Amino acid sequence: MLEVELSNLRLRNPIMLASGILGSHAGSLNRIAEHAGAVVTKSVGLEGREGYKNPCVISWECGILNAVGLASPPAKEFARELKMFNGACPLIVSFFGSNPEEFAELVKIFDFANAFELNLSCPHAKGLGLEIGRDFDLVYEIIRAVKRNTDKPVFAKVSANLDYVELAKVCESAKADGIVAINTVRGMAIDIVSKRPILSNVSGGVSGKAIKPIALKCVWDIYEEVSIPVIGCGGISNWKDVVEFALAGARAVQIGSAFYYSYDVIKNILEGLESYLRINGVSFDELVGLAHKR
Amino acid sequence: MLEVELSNLRLRNPIMLASGILGSHAGSLNRIAEHAGAVVTKSVGLEGREGYKNPCVISWECGILNAVGLASPPAKEFARELKMFNGACPLIVSFFGSNPEEFAELVKIFDFANAFELNLSCPHAKGLGLEIGRDFDLVYEIIRAVKRNTDKPVFAKVSANLDYVELAKVCESAKADGIVAINTVRGMAIDIVSKRPILSNVSGGVSGKAIKPIALKCVWDIYEEVSIPVIGCGGISNWKDVVEFALAGARAVQIGSAFYYSYDVIKNILEGLESYLRINGVSFDELVGLAHKR
Amino acid sequence: MVRHCDSIATLVFEKSIRSYPGQFVMLNVFDYEEIPLSLSSPNSVTVKAVGETTRALVNFKGGEIVGIRGPFGRPFSYSKRALIVAGGIGIAPLRYLYHWLRERNAEVTVFYGARSKEELVFLDEFEEVHVSTDDGSYGYRGNVIQLLIKENVDFNDFERVYCCGPPIMLKSLYELLNKKKILKRAEFSVERYMRCGIGLCGSCVLENGLRVCREGPVFRGDELTF
Amino acid sequence: MVRHCDSIATLVFEKSIRSYPGQFVMLNVFDYEEIPLSLSSPNSVTVKAVGETTRALVNFKGGEIVGIRGPFGRPFSYSKRALIVAGGIGIAPLRYLYHWLRERNAEVTVFYGARSKEELVFLDEFEEVHVSTDDGSYGYRGNVIQLLIKENVDFNDFERVYCCGPPIMLKSLYELLNKKKILKRAEFSVERYMRCGIGLCGSCVLENGLRVCREGPVFRGDELTF
């Protein structure tokens, strides 16, 4: 009832861990893999990155605001950490980089992964993420380079802060196997006592409930324009949100900020989702894109 | 302590009513004008518009989602309605249109207004709002055409769904007197029982608390790049939000969705804001942009 | 679904809505439109076919799914000795009020006018009811305000007067109560075109700036002008 | 501000924080960094200068503004007969715990080891305290685990053992309690590099996947491996 296929990747359920959340250590990935359809690691590049100083993650009324700055160990060190992954579900490794060569090299280092996600959307790292995603020609070259080095599925994670429909089309033409929409949305907060931006990096990315309607719209739009799978991400906190995203066209979803509420969020979502599907007499697959049909 | 100047427009306080909220009738404008620094009317075009069918406005966990579709009476009819405005504060009339000639004509019809706001950002009307705002050359021509027909301040309301910094620079070069940032952000919601989009127009614009950090970032960015006043709008619900926007660079702010919580929201904000300014021993003017200084 | 006549029906929901009499819901009739409707009980609305959407509603068979937002708005207040004055489909919220008051041991007198006998609904539910019809097919021939005057009702017998009906009727009652100087003791349920139902769009504001969806739909007589 | 010695100080906040002993706050030292610090009372943290940020904190004069998020994390639990084992600056949360337990009529025995006499803080606040210093400048010369063994402490006298200190000390105590088969009755406050403090970034997860900032910082001995 819950099984889905993303290109040649078969998942027992459509609920994935989103990149950037609890994805730096095998310990947390192993725990989440018990229930998740797949886990996506924190983004890694060839070289390690310090990231930004604290505070780099804060919670606010309607979600989370972060500018961690792609803090990560060097690729080879992270590969060693991921060797301790228990394999309870497929492992998707997320990459950042600034040119096709870097991405292509990363694929080789993580050849044991089940799929790859390309971070074209992190909103707060200079020369990476969103800044790469803005250059559609470069995105095309990156995906081509990665695909030449692997037969495993390659997903592109896009931002709502640019023309994501056009970008998704470019990704599809480069033979990406799916679009993950969306990453965090640019935002910031200011402390009115000290009169300064709260994040050490001044601005960062908004996630959590606040961006759910925004992400849903992106999924809807991309689903209308490309035929490769869309993976929904952004503010999904419960099974109802998952259903909304499926109806909008998401073949799978990713859960991030909702881990703030509970470490068991994926398990809880699966319970509710199964009930909904049973009551409605449909499989998850049949829900996908249903709200587009009149 | 609260007085601000926007070009040659003097306001007794920086709290304005945002366009699109309670701005269709003199009755509500008169009531809000008792406390507001200025009121902005609902956007009006030369011809009347039906707008979209209900449901066109819904509230959700973190704010409001709407696709009213610029429903409005014809300009001349609306001008008659606005003649009943009590003048308790400056009246700013908001315009939509699809070319410079329409905007220029509208200025003449509403020559009794104290200032004008150009809607370059409504996210859900074909050929208007955001679709006009995307064409920077057209925006330049529109502002020039309006400015030729009036000496009163002209503000441009921009969207977070495009390159607002570039657009703000274009507006400045066309001699706009201020930038209002931001309009609602594109978004949608789906009903999981009927399995359809909730808004009759499928998608609409997100406002309310959800978009506060997004709007704040836009104000911050625009403040860094242009020297004309920035007017903050987006998710402002209390005096603390107003202070945040001022620190980010907003010389005035607009309140919209927060009228969902109370008709007296502006009065309540003014009380808190005054206390904050007194405790900090600063005027509102002195707060503006303070968080940029290190 | 209870079909009262060709043009009037009561839609019963599967679930009750925690609400007070006088409040309304925004009811979304899929493929048509979302419209504001006063609750005629905690789990029903009573609709008269006047446009495309209400016609579709009245023709429902039962079992249809609708979208509901609400309840919204300010309800009627309680009183011990109540006079209810209903015109046409205005009976809907007042029927809810009637039962609500009766359950709370109030004495309630009902004056109820409709176009014809056919359009009189819920009539058997009221203990003390004075009826008028425009065509004289039932009760007094004329409108309900004329009936009030004819029966020489002493408004001082009542703690509060509750009213809902077409604009022309509200206006006559308003003038009558104004003359008697008891507008403060009257509550009018007012209708306006609504979009959002939550106080934002401004479609339903009265001349004095009050929002029918938030400060209303029930207003004290002295808050209104006609 | 209470300056205990050159490298250790207690910062007292203007307001108390609703919290339990063992919980921590994320304290933002403007122009430096935000760091996690265990509360040493409802309105204070006690800091040792080990890096740039903690050095800046220790050098505060008083009256500075800091940013605080929290309190976060799982606190210590109550017991009637408590043994506290503190190493170095690990005394901070255990001092909060000590007073919290004493106010609730628990019997509390404290074993407290530090590098030297100078770095022993809050010493006069404890009624029954056994002290060791690495350099022998006060109490037993050696570490606090050696002192526990030397004094031949019978762990069965205590309902619960609470521990906070440097990793090497936690490890020795863990092994000792493991041998005695009472890990279930022990609570360790664990330290890890933290970014978010709210369970999202994953910086502080243990090998078993538990998050120090959410499932911890206080863990039952049998939840840990060393």
UniProtKB/TrEMBL annotation, chains A, B:
Q: What are the binding positions for substrate in this chain?
A: 42, 66-70, 119, 183-184
Q: Name one GO cellular component term.
A: cytoplasm
What protein am I looking at? Dihydroorotate dehydrogenase
EC number(s) given by UniProt: 1.3.-.-
Q: Which GO terms describe its molecular function?
A: dihydroorotate dehydrogenase activity
| Active-site positions on this chain | 122
- Required co-factors: FMN
The record describes the protein's role as: Catalyzes the conversion of dihydroorotate to orotate.
What does the entry's cofactor note say about binding and number?
Binds 1 FMN per subunit.
Binding-site list for FMN: 19, 42-43, 119, 157, 182, 208, 234-235, 256-257
Family indicated by similarity:
Belongs to the dihydroorotate dehydrogenase family. Type 1 subfamily.
Report the catalytic activity: (S)-dihydroorotate + A = orotate + AH2
Domain spans labelled Dihydroorotate dehydrogenase catalytic:
1-277
Reading the lineage from the top rank, the first entry is Archaea
State the species of origin: Archaeoglobus profundus (strain DSM 5631 / JCM 9629 / NBRC 100127 / Av18)
Fetch the InterPro entries from UniProt.
Aldolase_TIM (IPR013785), DHO_dehydrogenase (IPR050074), DHOD_1B (IPR033888), Dihydroorotate_DH_1 (IPR024920), Dihydroorotate_DH_1_2 (IPR012135), Dihydroorotate_DH_cat (IPR005720), Dihydroorotate_DH_CS (IPR001295), Dihydroorotate_DH_I (IPR049622)
Q: What are the alphabetically sorted keywords of the record?
A: Cytoplasm, Flavoprotein, FMN, Oxidoreductase, Pyrimidine biosynthesis
Which compartment or compartments is the protein found in?
Cytoplasm
Known Pfam families for this protein?
DHO_dh
Subunit info here reads: Heterotetramer of 2 PyrK and 2 PyrD type B subunits.
Its GO biological process terms?
Answer: 'de novo' pyrimidine nucleobase biosynthetic process; 'de novo' UMP biosynthetic process
Q: Does the keyword Cytoplasm apply?
A: yes
Major subcellular location class: cytoplasm
* Stored CDD domains: DHOD_1B_like (cd04740)
* Pathway per the UniProt entry: Pyrimidine metabolism; UMP biosynthesis via de novo pathway
From TrEMBL, chains C, D:
What keywords appear on the UniProt entry?
2Fe-2S, Electron transport, FAD, Flavoprotein, Iron, Iron-sulfur, Metal-binding, Transport
Q: Which InterPro entries match?
A: Cyt_c3_hydrogenase_gsu, Dihydroorotate_DH_ele_sf, Dihydroorotate_DH_Fe-S-bd, FNR_nucleotide-bd, OxRdtase_FAD/NAD-bd, PyrK_electron_transfer, Riboflavin_synthase-like_b-brl
The record's GO molecular-function terms, alphabetically, read: 2 iron, 2 sulfur cluster binding; flavin adenine dinucleotide binding; metal ion binding; oxidoreductase activity
Q: Where is the Dihydroorotate dehydrogenase electron transfer subunit iron-sulphur cluster binding domain?
A: 191-224
Keyword presence, Transmembrane helix = no
Does Transport count among this protein's keywords?
A: yes
Q: Name one GO biological process term.
A: pyrimidine nucleotide biosynthetic process
Could you name the domain of life of the organism this protein comes from?
Archaea
Binding-site residues for [2Fe-2S] cluster, renumbered to this chain: 196, 201, 204, 213
Q: Which residues form a coiled coil?
A: none
Residue ranges occupied by any Oxidoreductase FAD/NAD(P)-binding domain in the UniProt entry: 85-172
Cofactor(s) this protein cannot do without? [2Fe-2S] cluster
Cofactor stoichiometry and binding remark: Binds 1 [2Fe-2S] cluster per subunit.
Question: Can you tell me which family this protein belongs to?
Answer: Belongs to the PyrK family.
Q: What is this protein called?
A: Oxidoreductase FAD/NAD(P)-binding domain protein
